[in-house]
Amino acid sequence: MRPSAGKKAVRTANTGDILKRTGSLWTHFLSRDCRVLRQMLRMEMQIFTLYSKSLPLDLACRVWDVFCRDGEEFLFRTALGLLKLFEDILTKMDFIHIAQFLTRLPEDLPAEELFASIATVQMQSRNKKWAQVLTALQKDSREMEKGSPSLRH
């Protein structure tokens, strides 16, 4: 089975560019030299399970609803919104505790706070909207497939 272009684009996205938007949390990751954590935070697990493993079920269902309405950009906005919401807590944790916390978020997480945090996230990179960035990544992925005999089917 061939992975979708969206998944390929997500895998090619630079985690640093995404996490730099979190400001002091990114600085914390750098100061702690959490290379492994930065690699783990590719967000694939969270995004491709649609947060069903980390969020309480009622919140995961709301995220799914908005995802169905708005598309995959909302999943990334959710990831950044969660990081923003818990930035103060995460900057005080070490690697193991950050990984544990992000794997299973608090059961009493208020939906209003989460969606307010998500609403503050603007998905632009170098003055390009998310759809433009995704299209460029997909185009690059297709061009790489054309140029590499091992990637052809």
Automatic annotation (TrEMBL):
Residue stretches making up the Rab-GAP TBC domain: 47-89
MF annotations from Gene Ontology: GTPase activator activity; small GTPase binding
GO biological process per UniProt: vesicle-mediated transport
Organism whose genome encodes this protein: Eschrichtius robustus (California gray whale)
InterPro entries: Rab-GAP-TBC_dom, Rab-GAP_TBC_sf, Rab_GAP_TBC_domain
Family matches, as Pfam families: RabGAP-TBC
GO annotation, cellular component aspect: cytoplasmic vesicle; vacuole
Gene3D superfamilies linked: Ypt/Rab-GAP domain of gyp1p, domain 3
Protein name: Rab-GAP TBC domain-containing protein
